[in-house]
């Protein structure tokens, strides 16, 4: 079996990466940065997001696992103290797999230009650098609302505990093949109206965001990466056909991770 380890880059994470690398090679596993069967991230959820994007072109062949060197993470849910145990489990192979849904985002240009396509593990968010975001929101091809406000966040179930949660969205269990749309400070008065509540959509319901003005530029963030775009016709969002595969070596139920992260890590 081939593995790779991505460290956050701080001293603690680098030391743990070094130890894990050594142990795994002692078990005759092969270090392969290009085509790993297992990608291990050491750091936080941010480091895990990086590992995901590094191997997003080979999700059918690479499984993921995260060790946290700071606070407990949603993706990085193994403690450094547990790595000996973890390595014995990895060496035993084959491992059990748990799959979580992803978001498929397509940005269509208004005039000639490139269509861009992204996969998100947490979310895509759309904001503006100059003033209010004004976009028509279509669901399954039908006009739903004209949104005016700071922006919109489209999140996956596993991303629902991240930015989505800060925007008042619901926490969605990742066994649900769904995605969620939350508003950022929408303008609501007698003239302008948006739904106001977060929306949770099933797998085949496509949502399209259509900016009213094509010359406007928008800041689109996919997980931890932000870029500026203008000349956008449509941002198309749906649940992806692809899934992320986690290597599962022990039970750590989602609701327990939610409890331990947000309520208390005591019992
Ligand atoms: P960051 O600024 O370090 O991330 C903000 C926090 O979100 C960090 O504590 C991060 O954990 C945590 N986080 C990431 N994914 C999570 C998840 N699925 N569930 C719960 N918490 C999660 O930047 P980053 O580490 O590159 O992460 C990018 C993510 O930050 C974005 O995808 C977005 O969801 C989130 N974000 C949150 C807010 C907000 O809450 N107001 C605003 C912008 C972005 P670690 O410390 O372990 O990395
Ligand atoms: Mn981070």
TrEMBL record:
<feature type="binding site">
    <location>
        <position position="148"/>
    </location>
    <ligand>
        <name>NAD(+)</name>
    </ligand>
</feature>
<dbReference type="Pfam" id="PF20143">
    <property type="entry name" value="NAD_kinase_C"/>
</dbReference>
<dbReference type="Pfam" id="PF01513">
    <property type="entry name" value="NAD_kinase"/>
</dbReference>
<keyword id="KW-0418">Kinase</keyword>
<dbReference type="InterPro" id="IPR002504">
    <property type="entry name" value="NADK"/>
</dbReference>
<comment type="function">
    <text>Involved in the regulation of the intracellular balance of NAD and NADP, and is a key enzyme in the biosynthesis of NADP. Catalyzes specifically the phosphorylation on 2'-hydroxyl of the adenosine moiety of NAD to yield NADP.</text>
</comment>
<keyword id="KW-0520">NAD</keyword>
<feature type="binding site">
    <location>
        <begin position="122"/>
        <end position="123"/>
    </location>
    <ligand>
        <name>NAD(+)</name>
    </ligand>
</feature>
<keyword id="KW-0547">Nucleotide-binding</keyword>
<dbReference type="GO" id="GO:0046872">
    <property type="term" value="F:metal ion binding"/>
</dbReference>
<dbReference type="GO" id="GO:0051287">
    <property type="term" value="F:NAD binding"/>
</dbReference>
<feature type="binding site">
    <location>
        <position position="150"/>
    </location>
    <ligand>
        <name>NAD(+)</name>
    </ligand>
</feature>
<dbReference type="GO" id="GO:0005737">
    <property type="term" value="C:cytoplasm"/>
</dbReference>
<feature type="active site" description="Proton acceptor">
    <location>
        <position position="45"/>
    </location>
</feature>
<feature type="binding site">
    <location>
        <begin position="45"/>
        <end position="46"/>
    </location>
    <ligand>
        <name>NAD(+)</name>
    </ligand>
</feature>
<protein>
    <recommendedName>
        <fullName>NAD kinase</fullName>
        <ecNumber>2.7.1.23</ecNumber>
    </recommendedName>
</protein>
<keyword id="KW-0067">ATP-binding</keyword>
<comment type="similarity">
    <text>Belongs to the NAD kinase family.</text>
</comment>
<dbReference type="InterPro" id="IPR016064">
    <property type="entry name" value="NAD/diacylglycerol_kinase_sf"/>
</dbReference>
<dbReference type="GO" id="GO:0019674">
    <property type="term" value="P:NAD+ metabolic process"/>
</dbReference>
<feature type="binding site">
    <location>
        <position position="225"/>
    </location>
    <ligand>
        <name>NAD(+)</name>
    </ligand>
</feature>
<dbReference type="GO" id="GO:0005524">
    <property type="term" value="F:ATP binding"/>
</dbReference>
<feature type="binding site">
    <location>
        <position position="185"/>
    </location>
    <ligand>
        <name>NAD(+)</name>
    </ligand>
</feature>
<dbReference type="InterPro" id="IPR017437">
    <property type="entry name" value="ATP-NAD_kinase_PpnK-typ_C"/>
</dbReference>
<keyword id="KW-0521">NADP</keyword>
<dbReference type="GO" id="GO:0006741">
    <property type="term" value="P:NADP+ biosynthetic process"/>
</dbReference>
<keyword id="KW-0963">Cytoplasm</keyword>
<dbReference type="InterPro" id="IPR017438">
    <property type="entry name" value="ATP-NAD_kinase_N"/>
</dbReference>
<dbReference type="GO" id="GO:0003951">
    <property type="term" value="F:NAD+ kinase activity"/>
</dbReference>
<keyword id="KW-0808">Transferase</keyword>
């Amino acid at each position: 079996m081939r593995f790779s380890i991505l460290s956050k880059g701080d001293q603690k994470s680098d030391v743990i990466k070094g130890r894990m690398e050594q142990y795994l090679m002692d078990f005759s596993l092969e270090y392969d940065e290009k085509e790993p069967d297992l990608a291990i991230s050491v750091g936080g959820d941010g480091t895990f997001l990086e590992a995901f994007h590094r191997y997003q072109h080979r999700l059918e062949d690479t499984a993921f696992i995260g060790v946290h060197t700071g606070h407990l993470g949603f993706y990085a849910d193994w403690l450094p103290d547990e790595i000996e145990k973890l390595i014995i489990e990895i060496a035993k192979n084959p491992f059990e797999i748990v799959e979580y849904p992803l978001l498929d985002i397509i940005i269509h240009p208004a005039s000639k230009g490139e269509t861009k396509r992204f996969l998100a593990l947490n979310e895509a968010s759309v904001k503006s650098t100059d003033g209010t975001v004004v976009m028509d929101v279509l669901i399954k091809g039908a006009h739903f609302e004209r949104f005016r406000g700071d922006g919109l966040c489209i999140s996956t179930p596993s991303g629902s505990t991240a930015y989505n949660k800060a925007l008042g969205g619901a926490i969605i269990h990742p066994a649900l093949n769904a995605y969620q749309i939350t508003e950022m400070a929408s303008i609501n008065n007698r003239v302008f109206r948006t739904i106001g509540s977060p929306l949770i959509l099933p797998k085949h319901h496509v949502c399209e965001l259509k900016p009213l003005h094509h010359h406007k530029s928008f800041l689109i963030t996919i997980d931890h990466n932000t870029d500026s775009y203008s000349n956008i016709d449509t941002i198309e969002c749906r649940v992806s056909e692809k899934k992320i595969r986690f290597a599962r070596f022990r039970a750590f139920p989602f609701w327990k991770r939610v409890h331990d992260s947000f309520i208390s890590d005591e019992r």
